[in-house]
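pasting for ref
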Amino acid sequence: MFRIESGDIVMYLKPQARNSEDDEAMRIAMERVDAFDSSYGFPLCPRLPTTIRLSRSEREDAEREDSAVDGDIDDERDTESRSNKMPPLPLRGWWSSGKKTTDDEHLESQAAGKSTSTKSACTCTNGANKKCLFIHGIGVRDNVGVQDDFAEYWGSKVKTALPCCSVVKFTHFNTVDSPWHSRGFAREICNAAAAVAINASYNTSTGALKWNESNSKPVVLKDMVLIAHSTGNLHLASALHYGDCALDPKSSRWLAVQGPMSGSRTANQVIKKCHIPNTTWDDLTRYVLEGFELCPVTGSTQSLILKGSNASASRLDTLYEKAVGTFRASVYANMCGVSAVGILSPSSPRYVALEAFSNHTSKENDGAVEFASCRSGIDASSFAPKHTSRFYKAEINHDDGRMINGDSTWAETRKPLKWLQCQF
């Protein structure tokens, strides 16, 4: 068991299996907590991930308090409360444990006070005929091409939540083995975008729309919106920098979500810890490295070493600078997360643990990426905690940026899906 703090919340994480006594103690204690965060506006209920633990003394104190305060509550109410209790939700793996059912998403939404509505928050000020391509980040192993759906990564909400998109497609590439600055991968991104631009299919095995490398003119992408999450932004920046494709500045937009444009201290820690015997790992290290399946170190992780750190090479720093230059010249809107807890979900304790493991220098991070790396040189004063802002400083974690958890019902600072809807 180990203790992790994030703001006002204290989490006790324990990888081992739990027992019914622990469950009951956790239920009693957590029902006495008035609020996880005042902006959530609801009591922290027992529908939390299985890894949250209270110390023994805290459990005993909570039980005594519960007995003293609620001793006069009748058995009928207690029975009703128990019958309505939802089962704990499973934790996701590195990026997802698999496709969620509608019931799963409804349970999570009820537990976290999240809105299940996908009605657009804004109108289509730039036209309703956009061809939209979602570019995923690190952690996907299969190399497929372009798909009509990718619910395992993006969830089921985004596909039906974008009325300004006449076409919605998703990349599905291996983002584990190659570094983000791979020349070959840059071509694949442009292949995918060029295919979506003409509403054509693209499969990596067929090699359709392969580039003629002797042709120095980039394919201009018109009436497109490219939505990139995490390292997907580095992949897109690399593709635009190499010049195989280009965004038409009048009709196309790049919407960035939580891009580690200067790398991440998480990568430094992963590389450091994966290269020492696992018998020397402490509980937190073991929980993170095994839970996120981060060892052995892959090419993508190696390329995400924090810019300017002792572990970074001058060549990598130069590549970051080029990516940042392309990013700042081309990006239309940017959403950065500044809370490892984020929207209350099964991901919350995982990213709180990742934040503690990563030793970020700033408390403004989403568990994996610091705000400074995400904003990529754009002045911090340009960011606002409002979903209608082009530059959104959101209290979400790195998982929330995949839109899988929808929006918080009450907190204006936790509405990633509505932010996305308002950038068209």
